[in-house]
Amino acid sequence: MSSEFAPDVLDPANPDRASHALLGDWLAFQRALGLRPQVAAELLRKHPQPASALAARGLSASSIDRSAETAALLRAGAVAVPLNSAAYPARLAGISDPAALLVVRGDVHVLSEISVAIVGARAATVYGKQVARSLAADLARAGVVIVSGLARGIDAEAHWGALEAGGRTIAVQACGIDRIYPSEHRALAARIAANGAVVTELPLGEPPLRPYFPLRNRLISGLSSAVVIVEARERSGSLITANHAANQGRDVFAVPGPLTAPTSVGPNRLIRDGAYVALGPDEICSELGLARAPHAREEIACELSGLAGEILSALADAPASRDELARRLGREPAEFALELVELEFANRIGEDRDGRLKIASRPS
């Protein structure tokens, strides 16, 4: 095998015949038993090789067009990591129903780094979005990888928070690696793959069907050392993630919210039932044994003073339009126009998707 390919990762670009054959066997196993993870894991403990495991169930590894599957994986720019591979994340391997095969676009190694999941409501409030983005950014600055599900609302804000802080993040999908759901998150998924990983256990081409999301949620918690619920309605899928986390022995944190808000029902009940209260990154870092994360304002205060420092500090909590920034600073826009140009030229600030000013992402 060529030395440029990791021996524990099955890469469709690897020309080695044995590697190609093994990849085909694993893709066939995924097609046959990937949606029955507990059965698949028990079978692989007895028969570590996928072809042998399939034969033990009276199935054949030649039941799929292996060449077509491998070619599709190559087009997707993804690799495969089997359960019995040394590259498979140990935290996930330790749960009762790990994925038999992980399909990954991005850096496989990030799956084994210390990580925290931040999940919540798709129809999130402005408060919830700000909390998710800020919390993810602060944890990312402490070296924590942020895990979420690429969904609208809290998930997307958590991913963006990590990226804008120059950190790394993992998106766990409930569809095939060659699909993006929701479709408007294509650009976000590309950023995540370049600064972390997009991962799924589902075969190529699988659409995001409703039963796949609870399955996906156990992987979000399984990859993480702790799970934070920011907002969740009474029957939210995020509560399924919290339940998986508790069953997997993970710490569960919840962000408290107003008693009258429907999106606060889930977190408030979790706190009532024993979840940790998430008031910021410090409690989470403490539970994980990490050094306290520098908050954005503190980090900025150490770097810049004067009006430029005031601008960065004003943008630390959330992006702002120029008029909104003027209100935060208590100044007229013309008074800080030169500082904005200098900060943009120095790549210290940029614009978000809505054209608002924000602190620029740092190179990872």
One letter per element, helices H and strands E, the order comes to HHHHEHEEHEHEHEHEHEHEHHHHHEE
Radius of gyration: 22 Å
CATH architecture descriptor of the largest domain: 3-Layer(aba) Sandwich
Low-confidence segments, ≥5 residues, pLDDT <50?
A: none
Strand-pairing-aware structural class: alpha/beta
Set down the secondary structure blueprint.
Layout (H helix, E strand, L loop, with lengths): L16 H17 L3 H10 L3 H7 L9 H10 L3 E4 L7 H4 L7 E6 L8 E5 L6 H16 L3 E4 L5 H11 L4 E4 L13 H9 L1 E5 L11 H11 L3 E4 L7 H11 L3 E4 L10 H8 L3 E2 L3 H8 L7 H8 L2 H10 L6 H8 L7 H9 L3 E3 L5 E3 L5
Parallel strand pairs: 3-4, 3-7, 4-5, 5-6, 7-8, 8-9
Antiparallel strand pairs: 1-2, 2-6, 10-11
Walk me through this protein's architecture.
The chain has 364 residues and is of the alpha/beta class. The protein has three domains: 1-75, no CATH class; 109-288, Rossmann fold (3-Layer(aba) Sandwich), CATH 3.40.50.450; 296-359, Orthogonal Bundle (Arc Repressor Mutant, subunit A), CATH 1.10.10. 43% of the residues lie in helices and 12% in strands. It is built from 16 helices and eleven strands.
